Amino acid sequence: MKQILLYADSLSWGIIPGTRDRFSFNQRWPGVLELELLHRGNQVRIIEDCLNGRRTVFEDPFKAGRNGLVGLEQRIEINSPLSLVMLFLGTNDFQSMHNHNAWHAAQGINSLIIAIRKAPIEPGMPNPKILVIAPPAIQVPKGEIAAKFEGAEKKAVGLAAAIKHVASENDCAFFDAGMVTSTSRVDGVHLDLEQHMNLGNALADGVEKLIA
């Protein structure tokens, strides 16, 4: 059994746009991916570590525990042995209380990559490969989250390219989620059911190669 750790936020947790509800495991993209890999004969388990509001390396001034760097090394240690770590973060770095641009978020991803590789895993256990996933472009935020993400669509311009550059510099695999899906028209930030399905299936080929 090969284990994959997904370290992510609400786009992967599976929040249903416009609600506080959650898609079921077989509906959200990590579940879609796992089921597809199993269908192909891969003995694999995806460990979902997806926290709503998680940033790359920044603090949420209103809610504790959203700095993605804090405790990451221990999560690698806890879940080892791991064949792959998937990083899918960045969206929350552009919440309205932060004055960040794409470069800042990409540098946050860089810090997370370094932390993963520094993790104190047990002797003889493999250093996991890393797949960095860039989130799809934020649209104009709508509904209840509009104030929280006000201006995010402007601040996040160039995010995928900036994350791709960091992934390349660190010899990590890269996938641009925006190439296969947009964000929801309902709230402009999260993913609809069809978008989860599209992303999970689109990742299957690349992940299968990485864990081979």
From TrEMBL:
InterPro entries: SGNH_hydro, SGNH_hydro_sf. Residues 9-184 form the SGNH hydrolase-type esterase domain. Signal peptide: none annotated. Transmembrane segments: none annotated. Pfam families: Lipase_GDSL_2. GO terms for molecular function: hydrolase activity, acting on ester bonds. This is GDSL family lipase.
